[in-house]
Design brief:
This protein is an alpha/beta fold. Helices cover about 55% and strands about 5% of the residues. α6 packs parallel to α8 and α18 runs antiparallel to α19.
Amino acid sequence: MASLFNWFKRGKIATQGTSTPTDLIRRGNDLLDRGELDAARVQYQEALALDPDHADACICLGFVLKEMGQSEAAMPYLERAARLRPDSDDAHYLLGLAAEALGDGETAARHLASAVAIKPAFALGWRDLCRVQFQGGHYAEARDAVERGLAVDPQSPDLHFYLGNLYLHESDPEAAAASYEKTLALDPDHAEAYCNRGLALQRSGRFDDALASLDKAIRLRPDYAEAQFNRGCVCSGMRRFEDALTDFDLAISIRPDYVDARTHRGLALMDLGRLDEAIDAFDRALAINPDQVDAYVNRGHAFFLGNHYPEAIEAYERALALEPNVPFLFGQAMHTRMKMCAWSRFAPDLEQLTHKMRLGENSIQPFAAQALISDPELLRQLAETWAKQTPEQSLETDASQSGSSARIRVGYYSADFCMHPVSFLMAEVFELHDRARFEVIGFAFGRDRQDEMTRRLEAAFDRFIDVRGKTDRQIAELSRELGIDIAIDLGGYTTDARTGIFAYRAAPIQASYIGYLGTMGVPYFDYLLADEIIIPAECQPYYSEKIVYLPSYQANDSKRAISDRVFTRAELGLPEDGFVFCCFNNSFKITPSTFDGWMRILGQVPGSVLLLYAENPSVIPNLQREAECRGIAPGRLVFAGALPRADYLARYRAADLFLDTFPYNAGTTASDALWAGLPVLTLAGTAFASRVAASVLRAIDLSELVATTQSAYEALAVELATTPDRLNQIRERLAENRATARLFDSPRFTRSLEAAYSAMMEQFQNGVAPDNIVIRN
């Protein structure tokens, strides 16, 4: 009330006499001075009883009613005053504030604009007009108002504060922070400026300064829930999730109905891997506001991470019903249904998804799209759309200089230094690097999973650094301090990846390899490692990076152990006789068209069965139903679960032929099958992910198992299943090639990879811009 009360005193009306309306107004004003609002209201009402058209009495009564929280009751009096005195800036100003209090931003803006039009030197009016326009999303009008106000009163702390808010909205945090600092120079106790300055500093990557600013806001106002909430957001950005939880809890204790604090509390719990608690936090937010879209979205993500896909779908669909254009949620819901092999909406969803992608909409994250889209041009466009979330950043230190060591320092960055396909492929490469020429450093930022593979990798690197608690910027700064020459991102756009590290340019040379099968679509990745099978020369325009052509693409670990366990058919639920096809790819890679082909194959091979990996319980009834719809008995699908890795590899020996998926091929699973002696049949397309298995098969000299059309793929599957001699010949060649071909020759692959790194360094040291590199040895 203080600011309005001070404003109103400037307009106190001189009076004379003892029984006129003006005398009653004088008495009301005196009571107002003493803070006795209700008594003042009575005096103004008596004045209007004597003269219903007394404009000053209408203004005074409207003012005091608004100050008493009765804006709706104030409106008729203020509207009457504006009719009686159209040139009254007071009447229009108070009408604007009352309308704002009632949630009518359009009316508020109209009357505030009238007030400053009548009195252009009315700085307070410009301030409030800016606020109303900003809250209404009319940012150009808000900027005009704040600039006009500052021209009138350049020493107004509030006007500088609102200018800072505009800069923050315009994604200019440095300018926003400067405006807030002007506010604080004029009003050192402006808690809101300290709070928003904290946000601006956070967005500039100045996390410690942001915390200090928010702490000052909280000291000024210990009950400042928004500042406590923002402090939690900064701590989350610093990956101090336990501290963030404390801040969100404090914000909730101040304001129990603070939905955003409850939602962000859930996000912090998700980052800590406490999924059940996160879901409870989102449920509590939704109990307060059943239309809170973010809570539904993140509730879905928590269920997804916990492999509870039906519950995730329900949450996503509730969010989409409330807001159909939540960024990337349409695709995430579709990806989740693919995890379940729930295809009832597949065709219309795919058509809609493709349309959205062509329009450049935020439709699906790139990794999920690879299982649905085979057009490499469209996939590059999608990557570029997704990458806008992580624009290129800058650091104070110079990234253009490489380390001074005689050895090339290679940094490998991954969330998957554990029992994960990336590590299954790369472990031996890390061990085999030539330490006379290369220093190899691992930057681990995944969840805390201390397993057998993690321990092996800790020993494989020259240095293995746990950077989970560091921000992207801090990891990039550490990389520069260590003199990393070449930064290799092993995650791309996969789960828990940290693309922001490379947006800060962690090293003068940056490349993407193995974890994500496609272009990153950003300027700060210089190279993408591939081979001539995966990216033919004519496909180079579909990639933003320059291509490093290795002799073969996929690293492999020749130390992978296969157990001696012999699985009987009965043990696996397989018939005693009959040909066994199998596919152990993740279920989201199985599209309806791939499944159509498989069912046609089973239909042409009597007695055959298909052994599949059941990633989650929903897959089994869904695929059994789909088989029956295609005229195949559900019992001809046999499902296998997770096993220890050595046993998992041994299980491949129970099958006769691996059938690959399209458009997202087998990668690690193809190598696993071949290592176990099982031939793999694949269908090659044009996009990166649809050519990986072809590359793997070429590397083991079995390119005859690569089909280029669906009909050829099906015909070859049937031929191999019904011509035992030919399949046996392939099995024999596979057994011979396993020991001699490139695919499992880890030392040979490592030397090729090192040759690629040396060529990258040579280009860099010669001042040559990154260009395509071909390694022949």
